[in-house]
Every structure is written in C-alpha cells, then in structure tokens.
Batch of 2 targets.
Target 1
Amino acid sequence: MVRTPLQKSPLCVQTPRPTANPHVLAPIAVNYNLSLLFQTLGVASLIANGLAALATK
Amino acid sequence: MASTGYYAADGGILPIFSCGRVKLAPSFLTGTGMHSHLWCSLLIHIAALATNLAANVAFMVNSYDNSTDLLKGWALVSIAFHCLAVVTVLVTTGIFRDVFDKIIINTLVFGFMLAGLMATLQASYTHAIAQPANSVENGAHSTPKITVVCANTASNC
C-alpha cells in the first residue's frame, strides 16, 4: 500500500523569526519575558481580587 | 456623596487618594475594598503595560525585514489588546456601581486580557527561539514549556 504524505495546509505557515538588529534582539526578548511576567501577575491579581470581593459579598 | 464614579464605596474617584480613610468599593482592582490592593494592582498593570510597549515598539523600530510582517502583526495585537484591557478595567471599575453584575463586560475584559497575553506569548516565544540556545538571555529568562505550548496553540500550527 502506497502512502501519500500528508499535505500541509496553506494556513499552516511558520511564524517568521525576528530579524531585528542582533544587538537589540536579546534586550527585546528579556523585555518580552518581563512583560509576560507582569501581565500574568496582573491577570492573577484581577482574578484574586474578584474572588475575594465575591466571597465577602 | 459624589454622583459619578464608583471607586469609593459611596461613590467618587478622589477617595482613592485618601490613604485608607475612605472605604473603597469592592471590584477587580480593589478586592474587598483595600487601598493596598488597588495600588498594588495598578503598579502591576503599569509595569506590564510599560514592558509590553517597550518590547513591542523596540522590536518594530529595529525590525528591517519584510518577512517579519506576521510577527509585527502579533506585536500590534499585543499592544492593542493589552491597552484596551487595562483602559476598560479602569473605566468599568469607575462607572459601574456593582461591576460584578456586568457579566458580559467582565467576560469581554478578560477576553481582551487573554488576547493581549496570548499575542505577547507568541512574540516572546519567537524572540526566545531566535536567541542562541546557550545565550545568557535564554538561561536567565528561559521561556517556560507552557509558553511554547500556548504560543503554538495561538499560532494554530
């Protein structure tokens, strides 16, 4: 039995890697990670505050 | 009693500067009405917004290749949804007496927050894999596995 290889969907494109100046790529990556950390903390604080407020309602 | 603005339990916005003298209304920003919770939340969101804007703007200013258009799209989505989410939280906390009754608005805000977070995850992931595997940045600020999973889910590929 001959197997045909699966076709890759045209929608399934690889996200390109950033090609910014290599000297600024690293600081940007650090900044992105800091942003992720604070954003996650922000969402967590909203959820925690909301639950605390609802618990005492 | 102020007729507009519901940051304070009895209305008004200025009581947030009363250093704890006037009780605040319960909300997503103030928790049970604590001043410390409000300022802690604000500081976290300001830090998140500042680092997000700095990273995305720095990337877009320094990117010089057309092939990163898709990535610039993620960067724009990250900025747009994050700003929208933070502004909407601040506004809805102020204009609704009981913000917990506004289910649709709250769902929308958390949707904005998650959209911003997912877009930042995608941009962060692609920047992380662009670094050399043994770089200091990847060592000290390594992208966790969950980031990779979420980013791949977000890119639907």
Target 2
Amino acid sequence: MTIRPFGRGRLTGAVDVVVVGAGHSGLAMSRQLSRLAIDHVVLEHGEVANSWRHERWDSLRLLTPNWQSRLPDYAYDGADLDGFMTMPEVVDFVTGYARFIAAPVRTGVRVSSVTASDDGYVVETDRGTWRCRSVVIASGAHGVANVPAFAEAVPCAVQTLTAKQYRNPDQLDDRGVLVVGASATGLQLADEIARSGREVTLCVGEHIRMLRTYRGLDIQRWLHTLGILDERWDTIDDIVRARRVPSPQLVGTPEHTTLDLNALTERGVRLVGRLAGIQDGRAQFSGSLANHCAMADLKLGRLLDTIDRWVAENPARLMSAVAGLRPADPTERFAATRLEASPPLTLDLAKGRIGTILWATGFRPDLRWLQVPVFDRKGRLRHDGGVVDAPGLYVLGLNFMRRRKSSFIHGAEDDVRDLGTHLATHLRQGVVPPARRAAG
Amino acid sequence: MNATVNKVMEAKVDNGVNVEALLGARQALTDAPEAARFKWRATCSWVNGTHSRSTVQGFFGLGAEQSHKTAFTYDADHPEVFASEDNGSTPVEYVLVALASCLTAGVAAVAQNRSIQLRSVKATVEAGMDLQGILGIDSDVRNGFDGIKVVYDIDADASREDIAALVAQSQKRSAVFDIVTNPTNVAVEVR
C-alpha cells in the first residue's frame, strides 16, 4: 500500500481513497479506513450530517431506538435507551462522531464528476481535483425524490411538494392534502397534517404494516434478536424486489405509538388506492386497495408468528438477549386494516378542495456525478453487496445493500468492516480499472 | 428437515404448473427486455343484432409472431330480457371470465411455487351494474361495474393464512386484475 501524505491546507491532491459524503456511512468508513491505516479523505458538499440537518421534516425522529444508535467504536451514551432521537439529536450524534474519530473531512466540497483513470479514479470537485485508487460512495440513498411522470398533469392550482421539501403544515394552505405513498414517511406526514386540521387523503399501494411494540418489546428489539436485521443480501431469493420494498410503517415517538392505517382512519384520514394516474384534472386511484391491505395484514401476521415461534423455542436465549425482559403473553394481535366498502376511485383536483399533493413515493440516490459505466438499464447502480461493478468502487447505505439493516445508522458498522477489508485487499493487489471503461 | 428431504416433498406437489419454465422465462426476459414485449390481439365481427363473434389466434411475443394451436371463437350477445337472442355471454360476463380465469391461473402458479398442493379451486364472481348508466337515464351512474366481488373456495394442503396469501399474491401478479383496477388508455379508430 502506498501512503501519499497530503498537506492539511491543500484542497486537492493524491490519496488512496476518496469517500464521497460525510454522513454516518461515510464517517463509519473513514473510521474503518483509519483503523486499516489507509490514507483517505472524506469530501462533503455541505456540512457533516448534511441531509439530517437540511433535508428532513421538523418533527421527524429516528425509527430506531437509541440503543441502536451506534457507529464503529461509538454509541448513544444517554439514559433513554428506548427513546427515539430528534433530527437535532441525530446531527449532534453524527457530528460528535466526526470529532471523536477526527475524520479527515473537507466540507463545502461538491464532487462534480468521478471518472476512471489508468491507476484508479479522478474526482473532480468545485474546489479542485483528487486522484485516488478507490472511491467510496456514501452520498446517501435519498438524493432524489421519486415522482411519477404523470405529476406533470397536476393542475397548476395545486401545490406539489416532495417529502424532502416538506417541513411542517405551515407550508400548506388550508385546503385538503393528497399524500401519495404509505411508507413510514407517507403515514407520518398524513398523521401530522391531519392533526393540523386539514382534510387528508392517503394513497395506499404496496406497504409494510408494522407494530411499534409487540409482547411488550419494541419491534426493533425483536427484529434484532431474531437476526432478521442481519439477513444478508446474498441469502435472499429476490434481492431486487427486497430492495424495492417501502420502509415499514413506523414512527418514533416518546409514547412508542403504533402508527398504522387504522390509526389514520380514526384520525379522519381517508384511505384510497395507489395513485394510478391523473387525467383531465382528476386523480385516479387503483381498485387494488383491499388486496394491498390484505397482503400487509398477512405479512405482519407471519412476522408475529415467527416471533411467537422463536419465543416458544428459545426461552433461555431470549432471557439473555433481551436483558431480563420477560415478553408479555402472545395473546395480543392486531385488527385487520379497516376500509370503506367502496373507496373512491377518483378525486377532482380542479375543484379546489385539494391544495397540495405531497409525494411520499420514495427516493433514489443522486449519482449523476458518477461517470463510470456501472448502471443497469433502469439507472440503478450495479453492485454486489456494496462492491460496485468497477474495481475499487464501493457504495454504502442503500436499502438492503448488504444486510437488511444496511440503510440504518447501526447498519454501517458491519458493512464498512466487510467493505473496508475488500477495499484493503484491492489496494494491496494493485488492481486498476481500465481507463477505456471511463468513456460511458 | 434437511434439504434433500425438502426437495423430495416439494417434488410431490403437482398442480400441473411448470414453475421451472416460468422462473426460467423470468430470468431470460430480465436479461432480454425486448423479448418481454407482447401484443395480444382479437378480431370481432358483427353477426346480427347484438350478436357478434370474436376470434383470437395470433399474438406477438419473444420477438416474433406466435400463434395459438387453434383459433378460438367467442360468441357474445345479450339475454332475452334485453330483447336479444342470447347467442352467447354478454361482453361484461367475458370480463368476469377473464378476471376469474386470470386469478385462478395465478393461484395455481403461486401454489406450485410455494409447494402447496391444490385439490380444488373454485371462484365465484359477481359484479354489480346499474343499467341507468348505459341507458343514459342518470349521468351520475357509470356504464361499468360499480364493484366486483370474487369469492374463492379452495381446498389445499395449507393453512387458512397461506391460502389467503396465495390469493393475495395472485392478485398482485394478475394482468386482468391490473386491467380492471387501474386506468388504461384506449384508442378506438375507424379505417
């Protein structure tokens, strides 16, 4: 391994590894590279923990309890292990980590392109050029909001916002709001906006129903204890589909509330099918709502069955795994998702009742700067558990990238350990990507 | 249960569905998206009154013209209470037939893939319609169904939840369910 020291004040130079992004993933990788004595720099277009600071709505808390807020050699050290961090607390946590590991972060440096060269990669930024042998993409999974093509047909009197642009209900006029998408995001926003007194309609397609607590324990405790969060990408039948699954319907609140479609119905939110199109100023909803809800109910039932079976088979292991907590009786279940007999199939957007459409339809990474031919025909990064399909190129933090927990803060630890080892081997072997592949 | 025993047990399940071929096609068409583009066709000729006869035989797929083993014909008409001669099912009944047969084929395929032996599968389909729509009596009433209800009676080696999951997955993957539940642009032209 060649160590090429660089001056502290220089904004450009040669380095073994460039990590793009100083969020929790990029910092965790920085820690791993430091442990392996690999020379690297972390380039961040904004500040440390930038998207946690600037691209989340005000009321958001993590979906994972504080005991899961951990990064390599670092963990939440407060008293409320079962609580859920607010965004300012997450920012403190991540920036505290950057200080703790003394990460070589260059903030305010925007990467404009990464291209392959004879001996690695050239990283162009708005503040100079870096040459390196390896690049770690840690710029996040939430770069661009997915918005359907028919969004263009939304009448101009209706405001549209993505979940990235939404902050709080004060941004909205007093009219009704159509929230599109029933992931954790869609449910939380529908709930908050309904509480603000606005009429809310929620478009529900495929979704993952979840309970916040089951048998007296947080669902994350069960998923962790049963090893479900550690399931690897190379053991899943259809990983492409598994990666597309929307985030489970969860919210982190001090009250440990379960937020599901029934709770929203009680709050007065109207449930309709997936938004299938917009024609002549009318939103068209799919007639598949009942099936999507039936599927989600069945899947939740199967998860709870799995937990019950595990408790029945492993009482001794359970006691140590949950630190003396005794799970409650398995009698509690959940009510089937309640729906109207005939949910509406259309909604007139031009009549003035709807003031805002909120797209909670997921995100994709923004990798327009990555000018290496590593994308499939649908524009998705080709990677095998984070090892991108070009020598020396790695990615972090994508949904179910390497493990089911890869997109969570606590998922970074195992992923950077694996990928750091792979990267170190790559540097030792001196494999270089062929420059001619940079043409794409 | 070890893998060998598991495999032997799976081999016993036979719903007459070649799952290996279906999974093979899925892989092949993932790698060759152009071959996955199909065109389905039918022709329909007026016979007399509300009676028409439709034929299907050719279709396009896997990059080439294809054909059914034989031409299938379908007579459509209206019943005598509509002052018609009742030479065949009504067109709306063909929609119910299409939905039920698509979902039922899906139930068999999903069951095979999940190693569930089916003994009997019966779907009963009912759709409501208010004739004030097609007769132009009330403009607030749509022409089409006001709802469709499908009830399955399934006898299979599986729990009630697993059977419910079969039916749910079949809907998720059904072409006709999608056609019926989601809008489709329709272009009708005259040559």
